Structures are given as C-alpha cells and as structure tokens.
Amino acid sequence: MNAVNDETFQPDVSFDGGDLDCGNGLLLLIRKHIDPLPRGGLLEIRSTEISVDEDLPAWCRLTGNELVTWSKDGKQRRFLVCKGRLEERGKSEAPKVPATPMATVVSDAALSPLTRRKERVPAPSVPPLAVMGIGSWPRPRWMIEAMHDYVQGRLDEASFQETANDAVRLVAAAQERAGVDVMTDGEQRRDSYASFVATRLDGCQLVPLIDLLPLVDHPEEFEAELRALDVPAGEVRHPGVFGPIRRTRPIVGHELDFMRGITRKPIKVALPGPYLLTRTMWMECISEQVYASREQIAGDIVRALREEVIDLLDGGAALVQLDEPVLSEVVFSGAKNKRSFMCGALSESLGPEHELAFARDLMNAVVDGLPQERVALHVCRGNWTPDESVALAGSYAPLVDTLAQMHVGAYLLEMCTPRAGEIEVLRQLPENARIGIGVVNQKHLDPEAVDDVAAKIGHAIALFGRERLLLHPDCGFATFADNPICSATSAEAKLGVIARAAARFTN
Q: How many angstroms separate the Cα of 222 from the Cα of each of 216, 342, 467, 470?
C-alpha cells in the first residue's frame, strides 16, 4: 500500500510502538489496544521500525482487520488499522476506554497483604474410590460465543457471569446423572484450562496464539507444527504479560462459590500449576520489559497462586488440583531447548534436570504448610486433539522422583492410554498420598465397557489399596473451549461408566 492522506479518519485509540518490530512485542501491544474496540473501531499505531511497513499489512490480512491508511514523515510512520472492516464503523457500540500503559515493577513491600475469608467453610471429605472429572467440560456454542464477546470487550462482566452460571448448571446436572462423587464446574468460564488466568490477574491480557508466531525462532515451522497437531492458532489464546502480575481479585474463587450454591457434594477446583504458568507467561522479548528473568516472574506467579489456593481452601474446596502437564514435555519432547506447543508453553526449556527441579521448587513454594490432603497434582501428556499419534508418550519413570518430592496429597494421573506406560511405577509415590488413575480415555468417542474399567480399578486396588484410590478420566473433556475433545453426551457417558464400575467395589 502506498502512503495516502489519512486526515479524513480520526482514531479512537492511539499508541506509539517506538522501534519495536512485530517479532519483539509490537503485535502484542497492538492486540492490547485493539481488543477493547468495537468492530469498526480505529487504532492508530506510530512506529519508527522499517520492517513494520511489510509486517503490519500481512498481520492485518491474516487477522481480518483492515489497514485503512499509512503515512511516513522521516523515520516516523503512522498506521491506521480498523478492527474488522471499515464499513462496520458506527454499527457497534461506542469504543471502550483503552488499556492503561504498561506498569513498572513494584517492590514486595508495596504488595497488599494476603487477605483471608472472614468465615472459613468446612469442606466435605473425599471418599475412597471417589469418581470425578479432571476439570474441563465441552461448552455449549452460546457459552463460547459469550466468552469471545467478553474477552473482546463486547460483553460486560455481569452478563458474562450470568451466561456462565447457566452453562455450569448444565454441567452439574450431567455429573449428577452420571453419579460422580466429586464435582467440578467444567471450567465453563475459561477459554482454556490455563490461559484464562490472563483475564483474572493484573498485568496480563489474552492474545491470539497466531499473534505470537513471530516470537518463536522459526515461525513457519511452528505454524506447520500447529496445523499438524490440530491446534487452531487463530482461535486459541495465550497470556501476554504487560505489567507486574498481581492478584487483586479471585482467580477462580467465584467459580467455587457458585458451585457451592448448587451442590452439596465435595467440589474440586483446578488451577494451572506454577511451572506451567511460568513457562506459558515468560517470553523474553515481552516479559523482560517488566521482569528481568523467568525466576522473577515465577515469584509473582507463586505468590498469586498461593493466595488463590488458600482462598479456595478457606472457601470449602475439598480438593484444589494444580495442573502441570508441561512436565511431560520436559522429559518426553526428545530435544533440549526445543520449543513446543505442549499445553501452550511457548518458552524454551533448559533441559530435564534443571526444569524438573525448578518445577518441584515452585510447586512446593505454593503449597508448603497447607493441608496436604486437600491439594492434588494432575499430569498428562497433552490433550488438545483426539489424535493419539501426535500426543507425547512415555512412562512416569523419569518423572516419578520429582512428583514424589512435591508436597501434595494426591496425584491424579493419565493412566488409561498406553502412552502413559505401566501403572506399577506409581508405587514409588509417597505411601501417604492418594493415587488417582485415569480409567477412561477422553480422546476416544465411544464409552469404554464397564467390565474393562472395573478390571483397571481392581488392578489399581491390588497395587495401592482401596482407601488411597481415586478414579477419573485421563484428562479433561475440553482443554480448549474452541477445540473440545468430545461432546457433552460422551463426557457424561464416560463418567457414568466409571461410576458403575466403581460401584462394584463399594457395594
């Protein structure tokens, strides 16, 4: 496009990207400012970086936004981008207030002290052979649409939460019909099991995965890998860190409070673990504007998660589950320093020994001193596609020592798929911890036979004893809202199979 006179168009929001190029943070800043705009809203981008002349029009074509005009005065460039198409201008609501500039790092002394609930709610106990989902449940189409509208600023908080409440009621009813013992809310309010935290923590914002392709070493190869893995890069969103990470409101405490109002059964709440969030949120070219290292960003992540876990325990959660599937990527990806989509972790790994020790220390920093019997750890090998052939594979043998050193009271582990190896290796886990085993595979469309599930349960009882055993699918039913593994009907049927098989050992 040639430079044109753009005095006709007045931007709704404007920012200066300086000399940042698209691979060093400009795209994230664009997303930070354009997302709150309605369709037809105009964003002015000022830049002195020459490569933006070619990269920004390409980004606009890729994302369906319109580059209306651009001009140049010496080194200073001015781009005017319309969210969507220009003909949509004036047909949506007025533009929202633009995002605030990136904050500067504050010292620990400036942080608000951890607040506790005024009244602590006693939690029901989790019985032996308790049947539960891992966490996520397929969202109705109207829930996904509401989620997109909320993230992009078209739906207010109250309306979004009201819509989500309706979706959660459907999930709860399905679990009741299936006969589960421990309830989850199906993560209906979350765009994915991990990245949703960017909508709840200060300093973060969700950005489409496709915007982050320039940040990896070989974007073309990475994009090809996403296609091979059946990952919808244009729909999956990823946290971008623009300021210090702070928890100034509950991350998922509101989910627990609503569930307590609709069920008397024990409730489990899942959270992404500290290592997963550190690997997800630390991207040098962006995060280093706020944090000097991933160890520094990990400190704020640990603080936020510990505050949240304490709040959930005070609020009556029977189990708080911390998800750390990226541990599998550490030991099974097969290449040191290999970047991987594994569960959304884009940052590099420094090698298994270092990463496992780092993950162990972060986990223990979150949970140390808390009621161990109410904290669980979940590990799997990837759950973004029903295609078993593209997920990671390997025994728990290289992980079991690290898992045993994490101060949790339960391990909820993928075990039904042959990719997980033999169950006997789990006998190396602490004898005072409960063992949860996956006895159905959420990747398979049809429900397993009750006899087959019962056989798995019987074998596990022989290894660990009835009192220690917990029962669940290998993973969630809809890790990513836009890319569920199965249908709600299939999810209910599979939990029902587990419940009927478990009943043979409880009657």
A: 8, 12, 45, 38
CB-based burial label for 175 (10 Å; 0-12, 13-18, 19+): buried
Categorize the per-residue pLDDT at 64 as very low, low, confident or very high, splitting at 50, 70 and 90.
Answer: confident
Cα angle value 33/39/40 (rounded, 5°): 90
In whole angstroms, give the CA distance from residue 366 to residue 311: 13
Distance of alpha carbon 360 from alpha carbon 365, whole angstroms: 9
- Which residues constitute the domain of residue 417? 116-503
Whether residues 148 and 235 share a domain: the answer is: yes
Q: Judging by beta carbons within 10 Å of its beta carbon (0-12, 13-18, 19+), is residue 418 exposed, middle or buried?
A: exposed
Which of the residue ranges 21-30, 384-393, 496-505 has the most confident prediction, judged by mean pLDDT?
496-505
Could you tell me the CA-to-CA distances from 507 to 132, 265, 398, 459, 499 in Å, in that order? 18, 19, 37, 18, 12
Lookup result for tokens 């949860």: 436
pLDDT bin (cut points 50, 70, 90) of residue 32 is confident
Residue scoring higher pLDDT (242 or 155): 155
Section 433-459 average pLDDT: 95
Cβ neighbors of 473 (< 8 A, separation 6 or more) are: 133, 134, 416, 438, 439, 440, 441, 442, 494, 495, 498
The 3-state secondary structure of 171-199, one letter per residue: HHHHHHHHCCCEECCCCCCCCECCHHHHH
Q: What is the mean pLDDT of residues 223-244?
A: 66
d(Cα 420, Cα 475) in Å, to the nearest integer? 12
Bridge partners of residue 412, in order along the sequence: 378, 436
> Residue 186's domain is classified under what CATH number?
3.20.20.210
H or E stretch covering 72: strand 66-73
Q: Which of 279, 300, 415 is nearest to 343 (CA)?
A: 279
Residues paired with residue 473 on neighbouring β-strands, in sequence order: 440
Assign residue 23 the CATH number of its domain: 3.30.110.40
Query: Within this chain, do residues 318 and 454 fall inside the same structural domain, yes or no?
Result: yes
Q: Which alpha helices (DSSP H) does 46-181 contain, by range?
A: 52-63, 141-151, 157-178
440 forms beta bridges with: 473
Whether residues 133 and 37 fall in one domain: no
Letter string b/e over residues 72-104, b meaning 16 or more CB atoms within 10 A of that residue's CB: eeeeebbbbbbbbeeeebeeeeebeebbeebee
Taking only the tens place, the pLDDT of each residue in 342-363 is: 444 455 556 788 899 999 999 9
Q: How far, in Å, CA of 157 to CA of 189, rounded?
A: 11
Strands 76-82 and 66-73: antiparallel
Q: Are strands 434-440 and 469-473 parallel, antiparallel or unpaired?
A: parallel
Give me the mean pLDDT over the 324-342 stretch.
66
pLDDT above 80: residue 37 = yes
- For residue 3, is it within any domain? no
| Most confident of the ranges 173-182, 352-361, 392-401, 413-422 | 173-182
Same domain membership, residue 74 and residue 135: no
